[in-house]
């Protein structure tokens, strides 16, 4: 299976069906306002370090799906199921994240529909309909860490902390994105795709 199966059967289409998810929603958030306003008690809490001179993204609008509750911050990784391949999952997530950034910039609804749950896709679609703006994003660094792998009956959920440095335009300074994304997949499904089920902001 995708990620959990270390990508041994993964082809280019499978990659295009998973990721960039984190970045899709980041671009959606950015699309709500090209001039982010710092806001106390809401929005994004950045890293304490800014690699490569990147500026933390602060006060940008929150994306809430109503599917997840907020946490106080990123938590240490929990014990993981024996059949879960952590290294394979992370390698695939980062590679696909980079490949699908282009799909978000091109406003590819078909790909978005293929890798999100119904409620999340509805949010994404609303954001695209609200703005005709197109983007050209340069990813300078994409890191990821698994925080939790949880089985709930037939469903498996993986929480991933994405740590990304990016530049939205050649003349702009680099910025840092740091959020937790939740992906779900049926354990019995033959379909390899993981679906984005929600996002949590990392609080200080």
From TrEMBL:
Keyword Transmembrane helix found: yes
Renumbered residue ranges of the record's region Disordered: 39-85
Transmembrane segments: 12-29
Cleavable signal peptide: none
Top-level taxon of origin: Bacteria
Keywords (A to Z) from UniProt: Membrane, Transmembrane, Transmembrane helix
Domain Tim44-like intervals: 70-201
Pfam family, one: Tim44
Protein name: Tim44-like domain-containing protein
Annotated source species: Methylococcus capsulatus (strain ATCC 33009 / NCIMB 11132 / Bath)
């Amino acid at each position: 299976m995708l990620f959990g199966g270390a990508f041994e059967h993964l082809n280019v289409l499978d990659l295009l069906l998973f990721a960039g998810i984190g970045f899709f929603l980041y671009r959606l958030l950015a699309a709500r306002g090209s001039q982010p306003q710092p806001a106390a008690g809401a929005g994004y809490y950045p890293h304490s370090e800014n690699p490569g001179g990147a500026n933390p993204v602060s006060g940008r609008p929150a994306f809430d799906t109503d599917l997840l509750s907020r946490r106080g911050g990123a938590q240490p990784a929990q014990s993981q199921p024996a059949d879960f391949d952590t290294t394979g999952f992370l390698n695939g997530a980062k590679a696909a994240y980079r490949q699908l950034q282009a799909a978000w910039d091109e406003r590819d609804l078909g790909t978005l529909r293929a890798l999100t749950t119904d409620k999340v896709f509805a949010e994404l679609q609303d954001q695209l309909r609200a703005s005709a703006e197109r983007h050209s994003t340069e990813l300078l660094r994409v890191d990821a860490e698994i925080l939790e792998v949880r089985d709930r009956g037939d469903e498996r959920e993986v929480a991933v902390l994405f740590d990304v440095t990016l530049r939205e335009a050649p003349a702009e300074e680099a910025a840092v994105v740091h959020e937790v994304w939740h992906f779900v997949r049926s354990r019995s499904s033959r379909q390899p795709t993981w679906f984005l089920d929600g996002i949590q902001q990392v609080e200080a």
